[in-house]
Design goal:
Elements (H helix, E strand, L loop, with lengths): L1 H21 L2 H4 L23 H12 L5 E6 L2 E6 L2 H10 L27 H11 L5 H28 L4 E2 H18 L12 H5 L8 H12 L1 H6 L7 H19 L9 H11 L13 H15 L1 H16 L1 H15 L8 H6 L1 H13 L6 E4 L4 E2 L6 E2 L4 E4 L1 H5 L18 H4 L20 H18 E5 L23 E6 L1
Parallel strand pairs: 2-7
Antiparallel strand pairs: 1-2, 3-9, 4-7, 5-6, 8-9
Helix pairs in contact: 6-7, 6-20, 7-13, 7-14, 11-13, 12-13, 13-14, 14-17, 14-20
């Protein structure tokens, strides 16, 4: 027993010393860092007492003055947080070739839907990105706009129906989710999902993919991204089986039908992907090797991932703030009515582009409630930080803390207050471009930015034009966030009351 106890104590001591040494990585290199926990690093414990955005913001606030970078521990793995906006610019644009990859887990051989543009790396990413670069131009968006517009009528009918049925208010997030489900289903997959007419639509169930509040889903997502080499060795998948079983047959059926039929003429994302797959280009491209079917399916799935939850949440939170501030709501409504007069009383593609206050409201929502709260990159070459003696080593993950930057009082006075005037033309000139990064920037920015903004703006404009929104008596301000969610999600349903205009 004495020998056994001695061995156990020895093993525990060695493990402790190894962990302690790993937890001194940043301190040994003279990089400022908060004292980490031995097991979870700088994470907010297993229970997630606060949202991860707030956790990262606290680290940021400790070191943002007089430091370009600071250290962070994700469990036992060191990660570098970028604090300086000039360095942010260098990483995203100027020295992008040193920070091409995101470090997201993907395993296309075992999990085809994970091989999308958001996650793939290196030459494969460049090839796919070049092929897709012309799919989200303003011209393509204008072609897709009538498809989105066709669902705005169903959106009005649903809100009117819910406000008549339940005078105590309704869950605005559920309404916005049904709208984006129909839009994404139609533009991305050529499907008539009927989500606005049927709350049991299959496309809505697919939105459960984003519900990382489920402990097993969160654990799998977290594990494969923190330990990607281990996950690949054991052929682990990041995409839930129910998602694969729904999307792969749907995409295959749509592809086969359109390829074998000359009668289908739709100006949607699926048609553009099929053009690329058949010819390697969209109209006049470089004629490079065409995509495989699995690559096409992964990009179609990305359209769903990038446009479904982010857009519905942005719409929801914009309407939440608008409902709380009647002066902002009335000012927006006046703009919508005034602009419509020049477009035959309709909210057209051109009309949306002329609604400057609407644009300010959406941007302020994206600032205050940033959907993608951190940007991650992997340093692929040793990189010396300008103005310091510190070299970011090859393979080191770096984080750009977008949420923290968006809430930095140096760039935004009284940052926790919703104020669309921050994005007036005059105010924009006073700030660095890199103080606002809801879609990232540079060659690896969000390609679907125009599409996302278009559906969000149309949805908001349609509802504000037709209804006056106010808080239900049980709706509180400010918003309580679910600390378990990776993405921003309200802890409780946001119930609004809508009065038909």
């Amino acid at each position: 027993m004495i020998v056994l106890l001695t061995l156990v104590i020895g093993v525990v001591t060695v493990l402790y010393l190894i962990l302690r040494r790993k937890m001194n990585y940043w301190q040994d290199r003279g990089i400022p860092c908060l004292e980490p926990s031995l097991l979870v690093g700088n994470l907010d414990g297993v229970g997630q007492k606060i949202h991860n955005n707030v956790n990262v913001q606290l680290v940021y606030e400790n070191f943002k003055i007089n430091h370009k970078v600071c250290g962070y521990y994700l469990l036992q793995s060191p990660l570098l947080i970028i604090l300086d906006l000039d360095l942010v610019k260098s990483i995203l644009i100027k020295d992008f070739n040193n920070f091409v990859d995101r470090g997201m887990y993907n395993n296309p051989d075992e999990d085809p839907l994970s091989g999308h543009l958001l996650a793939i790396e290196g030459a494969k990413w460049r090839n796919i990105r070049n092929k897709l670069s012309s799919t989200f131009t303003s011209g393509k968006m204008k072609m897709m706009f009538p498809i989105i517009q066709s669902y705005s009528h169903d959106l009005v009918n649903l809100v009117e129906q819910l406000s008549t049925k339940d005078t105590k208010g309704f869950d605005i997030k559920a309404v916005c989710t049904r709208f984006t489900a129909d839009v994404i289903g139609s533009c991305g997959f050529g499907l008539e999902c009927n989500a606005l007419k049927d709350e049991n639509s299959e496309m809505l169930r697919m939105g459960e993919f984003f519900d990382l509040r489920d402990p097993w889903v969160r654990l799998n997502f977290f594990f494969v991204n923190v330990f990607p080499n281990f996950a690949k060795r054991f052929k682990m998948k990041v995409t839930p089986k129910f998602i694969v079983d729904f999307f792969m047959p749907v995409i295959k059926q749509t592809y086969d039908y359109r390829v074998n039929s000359d009668d289908v003429k739709r100006n949607d994302f699926m048609s553009l992907l099929i053009q690329i797959m058949k010819s390697g280009q969209v109209r006049h491209g470089d004629g490079t090797e065409a995509m495989t079917f699995n690559e096409l399916a992964a990009q179609a799935f990305l359209f769903f991932v990038a446009g479904f939850e982010t857009s519905s949440t942005t719409m929801t939170l914009a309407l939440y703030e608008i409902a709380y501030r009647s002066d902002i709501q009335e000012k927006l409504r006046k703009e919508i009515v005034e602009v419509e007069k020049h477009h035959n009383g309709e909210i057209t593609y051109e009309a949306i582009g002329e609604m400057t206050y609407l644009d300010q409201i959406v941007n302020e929502t994206l600032r205050l409630y940033t959907p993608v709260s951190q940007l991650f990159r992997i340093c692929i070459n040793d990189y010396k930080v300008l103005g310091t003696n510190f070299v970011i080593p090859k393979g080191m993950p770096v984080m750009i803390p977008v949420h923290a930057i968006h809430h930095d009082s140096r760039y935004y006075y009284d940052p926790e207050v919703f104020n669309p005037d921050r994005f007036s033309h005059e105010e924009l000139k006073k700030r660095s471009h890199y103080s606002f990064l809801p879609f990232g920037d540079g060659p690896r920015n969000c390609m679907g930015m125009r599409f996302g903004q278009m559906q969000v703006k149309l949805g908001i404009a349609t509802m504000i034009k037709n209804f006056k929104f106010s808080f239900h008596e049980n709706t509180t301000y400010p918003l309580w966030l679910d600390t378990r969610g990776v993405m921003l999600m309200p802890l409780h349903p946001i119930r609004l009351v809508a009065e038909k205009i």
